[in-house]
Amino acid sequence: MIVIIRKIVELIVFGNIWISLGAAALTLNTFLVMEWTVNPSLILLVFFATALSYSFQRVIRHTSGNGINSIRHQWVYKQIKLLFLLIVVSSCLSGYLFFTLFSFYDLIYFSPLISIALFYAVKLFPKSLRDIPFLKIILIASSWAAVTVLIPAHINQELSAYGTWAIFVLNFIYIFALVIPFDIRDLQFDEPEKKTIPQLIGLKAAKYTAIALLVLCGLLSCALLNEAVYLIPVYLVSIVLVLQVNDRRKEFFYACGIDGLILLFPFSTWIVKSYI
Length: 276
Description:
276 residues
C-alpha cells in the first residue's frame, strides 16, 4: 500500500501535475482577487499548457544528458514513455482548449510565451535560454506572471486596468522569490557561468534575499491594491518555509513543499475574503 501511494505521489510531483495545479490555482486567484467571472476553460488550459511545457523541458534535459542526478531525474529516466504520453495528451487538450477560447490570430499575442516555453531548455545557438546568465529567473517569473494575470485580463478585456498590473507585479516578485530556493538546491550542480543568485552572493544571502522579496510582496499588497491583502497569509507561510531552505534538503521538500505554496493562493483569498 505504501509503495502504491509513493508511486502516485511521484507521478503527481515528478509528472508535473503538482506544479500545473499551482499554475491553475494562481490563475484562479487572479479571477477571485479581480472579481472576474471564473473561466473554467482557461483554468484548464493553463493547467495542461503548464504540464506540457514542464514535461517537454524535462524530456529535453533528459535526452541531452543535462539532467541533475536526483530522485526526479531517476524517475524521468524510468518513466520516459509515460512522460511522452503526458506530453501528447497535454498537447492535444491544450490545443483544443486554446482554439476554443482564442482565435488563430491570438497566437501572435501569445508567441513570446510559446517561444520561451520552446527554447527555455532547447539550445538556441550555443545555449538554451535557461543557460544565459541572469536570464533564467527573470524568464520564469515573467512567464508565470503573464500566464496567470495577463491572459485572464486579456479574456476579460482588462489589460489596462490598474489592478491587473498590481497583481502582475506581485506575482512576478513572488515567483522570482520562489525560484531562488531551487537555485540553492542546484548550487552544487549549476555551471559557474550561469551566475545564479546563490552563486553570486552565497547560499545564506540568497535565502534572505528571497525572504526580503516575500516581505516586499506583503508590503506592496497593502500599498498597491486593497484586495491583495487576501494574499498576506500565503506570503507569511512562504517566509516560514523558505527559512527552512538549505543545501541538504531533499528533492521532495522543493518539488512538493516550495512548489505547493502556490496552491495556497485561491484558498487564502477565499477564506480571508469571507471574513473581511
